[in-house]
Backbone:
């Protein structure tokens, strides 16, 4: 049996393949083909634009896929969200779908959009949002580069932002947030009811989530004299508690733990001053809670 899996082509592709690699999966991609080969014979991957993946998962063309929650909402797709995978093309932060307009242009909120022109890739989401707020406006589909269309071609735009740099570069500001989005592992409902496919999807979810968990963490191990153990463990954070192992010299203990990478540079000097020696930092591929 095989699981038909949709992978996002475009800006998310490299980040997605890197995450799969840390999870233990390798894909070989031919630049002229949309059907990668996987080192797992039970996977049948297909590269597609993330905008299309929710529709193909819902209709059963795909059993599962990775796409943005924003595209699930825009399509109104009835699918199972198996896992929330917070990563994007540049950062590990959620992406926001926002209303943006020119600084000093007269649009500050949804109520200012009456009769205005809005350029967006999220036509259905934007139209529903306007209707919920009792506003009538002209929503035009854009193939991209929405930021360049204000003010000549549009009065406002609805776009996804990660850092907001493109908006600032085009003298635009965020007026309202429509949605906070993230990459999601989604499944077709019939596939989710199939025992074999569900187990395969759950395995993918576990390993991909573990790979994401590991991105912000590192392993740390060190040797500590028993006389300094209390002082070292007092400054040593951990997911639970550090692992202690006796050494051949009974007056020493090996200490191992997992910590956030961002605190390592401040923590290692403190550990050394507290008496730790032979401190080793190492990367992690997966952390399964």
Residues:
């Amino acid at each position: 049996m095989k699981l038909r899996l949709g992978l996002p082509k475009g800006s998310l592709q490299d980040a997605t393949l890197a995450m799969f690699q840390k999870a233990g999966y390798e894909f070989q991609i031919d630049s002229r083909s949309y059907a990668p080969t996987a080192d797992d014979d039970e996977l049948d991957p297909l590269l597609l634009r993330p905008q299309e993946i929710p529709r193909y998962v819902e209709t059963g063309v795909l059993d599962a896929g990775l796409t943005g929650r924003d595209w699930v909402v825009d399509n109104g797709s009835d699918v199972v969200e198996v896992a929330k995978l917070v990563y994007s093309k540049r950062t590990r932060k959620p992406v926001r779908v926002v209303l943006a307009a020119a600084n000093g242009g007269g649009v500050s909120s949804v109520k200012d959009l009456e009769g205005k022109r809005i350029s967006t890739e999220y036509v259905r989401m934007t139209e529903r949002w306007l209707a919920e707020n009792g506003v009538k406006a002209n929503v035009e589909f854009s193939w991209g580069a929405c930021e360049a269309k204000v003010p000549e071609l549009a009065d406002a735009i609805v776009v996804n932002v990660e850092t907001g740099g493109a908006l600032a570069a085009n003298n635009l500001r965020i007026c309202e947030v429509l949605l906070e989005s993230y990459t999601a592992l989604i499944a077709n409902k019939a596939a989710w009811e199939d025992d074999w496919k569900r187990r395969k999807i759950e395995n993918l979810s576990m390993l991909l989530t573990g790979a994401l968990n590991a991105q912000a963490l590192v392993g740390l191990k060190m040797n500590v004299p028993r006389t300094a153990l209390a002082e070292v463990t007092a400054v040593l954070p951990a997911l639970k508690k550090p692992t202690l192992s006796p050494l051949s010299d009974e007056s020493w203990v090996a200490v191992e733990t997992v910590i956030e990478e961002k605190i390592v540079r401040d923590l290692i000097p403190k550990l050394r001053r507290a008496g730790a020696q032979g401190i080793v930092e190492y990367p992690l591929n997966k952390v399964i809670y």
Q: What stands out?
A: The CA atoms of residues 214 and 284 lie 6 Å apart. The radius of gyration is 24 Å. The chain has nine helices and 16 strands. The chain has a mean pLDDT of 92.
